[in-house]
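Worked problem 6 (solution included).
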Amino acid sequence: MAQLNIRPVPSCTECGLESAGRCPTCHHFLCMDHFGLTEHQPCAARLAAHADDYICYVCAQPVRPQQWSTTVFSHYVDTGKCEGCDRYICDLHHTYLRDEGVEIVRDGLRSQRYHVTRRYCGLCSPVRHLGGIVGTTRWVALLAVLAMLVYFVLQTTV
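Solution. The predicted structure is:
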């Protein structure tokens, strides 16, 4: 007789109920009630211990990363960081561009839909297609190295 490959639905690490998804930070299986960063460990302890790190780099206003669930398969994630320079920025004054996207992640036989908010500061928003300030710096450095290589190759052949 053929044996079926039955995979049980993972349970929440906090309460043991059916898991709704994984935390993008700590990767623990969590139910809808414990999906928020302040609702489960180790993320709640990390937020409390490093509260001084979660401030806007421009105006020093507190920034709180957020994530929440509306249904068993739909989760919202906002890290509060600029995607270009990876620094925390406040939502009201220094987020110049906000881009919301949906990422579908397969988790066994199920799939989870994560609505991710990507934000950009005033320095990174004009060059967001190159990866922000950090990505632009990498592209400029790569082009400079290639230009020097071409220059030295041409000098040695002449």
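Discussion: The two ends are 77 Å apart (CA to CA).
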